Amino acid sequence: MLDAFIDEHRAGLRESLTGLTEEQARRRLVPSATTLLGLLKHATFVERVWSEEAVLRRPRTEIGLPAAVEDSFLLTDDDTIESVLADHERACAAARSIAEPVSLDDLVHGNRRGPLPFRWVRLHLLRELAQHAGHADILREQVLAADADRG
User: Are 48 and 78 in contact (CB under 8 A)?
Assistant: First the structure.
């Protein structure tokens, strides 16, 4: 059930981009760098942090991730809906593969907090994905409403 809920929120984040233009996906509606496309890029970062860093103990520099969480929302000119979706799919597939042999009661040692039960990691991932899926729902609603008002 835990895996099913995690996958549901992964899908919700991806679906928030369905039918949007590149401009809509990049549109900033809040003072932070948070955009719909940036949320999915951040979710990719989160997947990799909690699987490759926490479980496999690979440093962020080796994985190619920014050191600061807030930088994981930043978009480059090369980031497109298609490319960010593909990166997210790859990160989720890798995270599923990494998680498969790990028991929820196993300790993982690659997080700055120190050893954590894998159950904590999975519940934290679920909480974070649910939170960001909610953000994406609101941002999408705002983007579509603003464009409907213009039209």
Answer: no
